[in-house]
Specification:
Layout: H1 8-13, H2 17-39, E1 50-53, E2 59-64, E3 67-78, E4 81-93, E5 99-110, E6 115-117, H3 136-149
Antiparallel strand pairs: 1-2, 2-3, 3-4, 4-5, 5-6
Length: 156
């Protein structure tokens, strides 16, 4: 597996990793709890998605109209600093009838609480765990649902 170059900037940002990682994990728990709440609301019941998170908020099991899925949280470090990533994976079956988990969507969480994803536009760029906007979790729930339904074979 190839990794990005280990720069002096990345090395320098590793100095406060423990505290920053704890903060990002706490934000991740708040995010996944809010998503689970959103998926169980009346507004999103038509999506047909149920998300059940672990006690520590670092993983979740997902049932959807498109099949089984899961979410796992990891912490990373890059030139911009420490951040966390929730990776949403859908279960597929390969040609040998084995279960294979493919990432279909991810949400990055910065130490300051910003939520970023491939669904990045002017509106979603303001999503933040700490400054919750009324519609942000509905929008994220809809994007996750759509991502779970995507067929990887359709990509060009």
């Amino acid at each position: 597996m190839a990794y990005p170059e280990l720069t002096m900037n990345i090395i320098d940002r590793a100095r406060n990793s423990k505290k920053a990682a704890e903060e990002v994990r706490s934000l991740a728990r708040k995010l996944i709890v809010a998503l689970a709440t959103e998926f169980s609301s009346e507004d999103t019941e038509s999506f047909g998605v149920k998300l059940v998170h672990s006690e520590d908020g670092q993983s979740a099991q997902i049932a959807s109209p498109f099949g089984e899925a899961r979410a796992n949280f990891s912490v990373f470090l890059n030139d911009l600093g420490l951040y966390g990533r929730y990776s949403f994976e859908r279960k597929f079956t390969d040609t040998l009838d084995r279960n294979v988990w493919n990432e279909v969507f991810c949400l990055d969480i910065s130490v300051d609480g910003r939520i970023l994803s491939e669904f990045f536009d002017e509106e979603s760029a303001r999503f933040n765990v700490l400054q919750r906007r009324r519609d942000q979790y509905f929008t994220l729930a809809l994007a996750i649902t759509a991502a779970l339904g995507r067929n990887p074979a359709d990509e060009l």
